[in-house]
Write a structure and sequence with these properties.
The chain is α/β, with parallel strands linked by helices. It is about 30% helix and about 20% strand.
Length: about 170
């Protein structure tokens, strides 16, 4: 069994309409929610063996902040095809993973991530910004992953449905 974590990038800023889409940063809420999801991953003992992100600024920042908050200690891989490559880009990248990776986190964009979740689980599920899906894949090897339901959606969390956090020092 393999475990796939799917994290949609946190809320991005539209304050600079002159920026290219790939360069849009996170807004204040996004900068708060991305590490919050990382802390939640740590609380749930979902520390990835590998993290891969779209090269878009908002996805890279989400991945970095979540990784720092969950205690991930390795470089984050940038996968160019995660930006606009469709759900096939994620499946293709996952198929090439070494087998010793049991828990993998991908960070990217809608509609690709919602479609990926549907392909892998057969469920139609909305992924709001900074939402995290935990999928158990019924495959022993990443190379066996196919564009068909091979998994079960175990959990879907968003910042809005997490328990309130205590302020630091309280």
């Amino acid at each position: 069994m393999k475990r796939l974590l799917i994290l949609r990038h946190a809320k991005s800023s539209w304050d600079h309409p002159d920026l290219a889409d790939i360069d849009r940063p996170l807004n204040k809420r996004g900068l708060r929610d991305a590490p919050r999801m990382g802390r939640w991953m740590k609380q749930q003992s979902l520390i990835p063996d590998v993290i891969a992100s779209s090269p878009a600024e908002r996805a890279k920042t989400t991945a970095r902040l979540a990784a720092e908050a969950c205690g991930y200690q390795h470089p984050i891989k940038q996968v160019g095809d995660f930006y606009g490559g469709g759900p096939e880009a994620y499946v293709h990248w996952l198929q090439g993973l070494p087998e010793d990776n049991r828990v993998v986190l991908v960070v990217g964009h809608n509609p690709d991530l919602e479609t990926l979740l549907n392909i892998l689980t057969g469920e139609v599920t909305a992924l709001p910004t900074a939402a995290l899906a935990e999928v158990e894949l019924n495959v022993g090897r990443w190379a066996a992953l196919a564009r068909s339901p091979a998994g079960k959606l175990l959990h879907l969390w968003s910042p809005k449905n997490l328990p309130e956090e205590s302020p630091p020092g309280s």
